Amino acid sequence: MVVGKVTLEYPVAVSVELLWKVAFSGNVSIFTKACVGMIDAIEVEGDGGPGSVTTMKLNPVSDTKVFKTRLLSRDAAARVVKSEMVVEGELAGKFKSQVSEVKVVPAGEGACAVHMTVVYERVDGTLLPPEEEARIGQGYLGLIKKVEEYLVAHPSEFA
């Protein structure tokens, strides 16, 4: 069994509280609004807590059309969320599993940093080439960047 790991850190120009509230609290309506133009719709199966499955239908210009995850845990006090990709369809031929953990930490007044780790296992037992690992990380960070852009442009909307 070969396990791959992608780690990223991304500085965000909004407070840890605001980023957490919009991107990770589980409030689908504000997250969708902050990702306007990138996410067309979000559906949640379950109560939004651990075990719930979230399906994001991404804008047609995106490489990925549907992104489906199962929430494993959300710790609001520590600002850590852990989820696993639901492997089905085309991805079932490539991945056995893909688990992401995101931690949001303060980084000065009005700023924070997102620390992300994605651990994956492929069906064929090999690691992804570095450029494909980078693409996985950038896919996750694309959502964070979109939220950041929205919050910088609308600083008091969700405060």
Report on this structure.
The protein contains three helices and seven strands. It is α+β, with helices and mostly antiparallel strands. It has a seven-stranded antiparallel beta sheet. A hairpin with a 7-residue loop joins strand 2 and strand 3. The N and C termini lie far apart (45 Å). The mean pLDDT is 90. GO terms for molecular function: abscisic acid binding; protein phosphatase inhibitor activity; signaling receptor activity. It is found in: Nucleus.
For the largest beta-sheet, the strand count, sense and barrel status come to: 7 strands, antiparallel
Q: Would you identify the CATH architecture?
A: 2-Layer Sandwich
- CATH classification, class level: Alpha Beta
What structural class results from the helix and strand content?
alpha+beta
Question: Would you count the extended β strands for me?
Answer: 7
The fraction of residues in strands falls at 35-45%
**CATH fold assignment:** Alpha-D-Glucose-1,6-Bisphosphate, Chain A, domain 4
Q: Give the helix proportion (percent range).
A: 25-40%
Uncertain segments: none
Count of the domains: 1
Rounded to the nearest angstrom, the radius of gyration is: 15 Å
Please identify which CATH superfamily we are dealing with: START domain
Major beta sheet, strand line-up:
1-7-6-5-4-3-2
Number of helices: 3
Terminus-to-terminus distance:
45 Å
* Gross morphology: globular
